[in-house]
Amino acid sequence: MTEEVLIYDLDANKAHCLNDTSVTVWKACDGKNTVADIVEVLEKHTRSKVNENLVWLAIDQLNERNLLSGSIPQKFAGKTRREIIMTIGLASVMALPIVSSLVAPQAIYAQSCSGTVANCIGCPQGTPCDVDMDTIIGMCLGGACAGD
What we know:
Number of strands: 6
Strand content: 15-25%
Shape: elongated
Number of helices: 4
Structural class: alpha+beta
Largest sheet: 3 strands, antiparallel
């Protein structure tokens, strides 16, 4: 079964999307399993032979994004993608672990600025500010309400 997982980090305000390989490794990183144990878990999941370096690449990516407890020294620090792929082996490229991350906008910035707003954060200059739906108190200027 192919699975992707989206993890939202509230502290860093980041979203991380893990592909099937990364999810399998992430779930197996319980503090008890060794890398060899995780290789076995991944082999059962993919029903194919897995290179230990493939697991290390996933661990490096998860650790780099603070998705694992504790700190683990990176196995591939300073290596290019080409060098990593050559280390893992071209046969494993289809199962490469991928962790994609992006900074998510804070909820306040996701508001619509049509009509009037009570808070100007993230709204364009000139958006009307209001106290309630009927009383306009000014316009948004520089992220704050400026009186008439």
